[in-house]
Amino acid sequence: PGTSPAAGRSIGTGAGQVAIAASALAAATDGVWYLRLPGGGQAWAGRATAAGVVVERPVGPAPVAIATDGGLVFVAEGRPDGPLQPRSRCIEALDPVSLEVRRSVAVADVIVDLLVDGSQVWILRADGVVASYDGPSLRPLGETRTRGSGPGFLAAWGGALWSLGADQAAGTTTVLTRIARDTQAATIEVRFPGRFPAALSRTDGRSGWVGLGERAGLGSVVPVDANGSPGAAIVIPVPSSLVVAAGDLWWTSHDGQVGRI
Predict the structure, then answer these.
(1) Taking Cα atoms as reference points, which of 61, 64, 66, 65 lies closest to residue 82?
(2) To the nearest whole number, what is the mean pLDDT of the chain?
(3) 210-218: long-range contacts at Cβ-Cβ below 8 A with a sequence spacing of 24 or more?
(4) In angstroms, rounded to a whole number, what is the distance separating the alpha carbons of residues 134 and 149?
(5) Per-residue b/e over 81-91, b at no fewer than 16 CB within 10 Å?
(6) 66: three-class secondary structure by DSSP
(7) What is the pTM for the complete model shown?
(8) Residue 194 forms beta bridges with which residues?
(9) Which three-class secondary structure state does DSSP give residue 87?
(10) At 202, phi and psi to the nearest 5?
């Protein structure tokens, strides 16, 4: 759709079908939360239900991620090209009904990913810092600097947080860092030379999946357990997203493919 649907408006072609060009999704109790970036300097956050009802409100010009703790909805606002604008480079907590901003907190650098883990909100910044905030108040709790920087990803498994980024000082090398939930200390570092970070599974099981890319256009996924031990790589196209569902790993690629392992 080229226009934003009005609050509560049902769109689509039938029950359970909603036509939205979404850039990010998060599970809701009755559907999904999403971000929509149609261009023109205005983005939207919304909720779509299985019945096809869509409610959305404007957010900042360049949101990068959306997540929820079952109550508040958290949006990581990025920074667009050019001067800093209102509702940029911050975390916002939105009311789940009205989608109005309840509170926000400024962030020192561009956010590249966001994860809600229990009562805490975690972000990964472009400078490689992983920071945590109290969900209800958005009060800063602590931060950890990793060797990864630039575009990156956050996930949770094995009782810890994991961040994935590129070690700019080591050429084309991806670094996966385990961060303890309680102390926020970086306790394990796994390196993947010759590959760039592409995706990270969002599962809270005993292991996760790391998506990697190579300069030749090929990609792979690598299982990593709670101790940071990687398994055998499985070759796929360069992945753009990974998700574990019903014991299977599903992936999408930048060339539009969808696959399952």
Answers:
(1) 61
(2) 85
(3) 210/164, 210/174, 210/176, 211/238, 211/239, 211/242, 211/251, 212/174, 213/238, 213/239, 214/238, 215/172
(4) 24
(5) eeeeeebbbbb
(6) strand
(7) 0.85
(8) none
(9) coil
(10) -105, 85
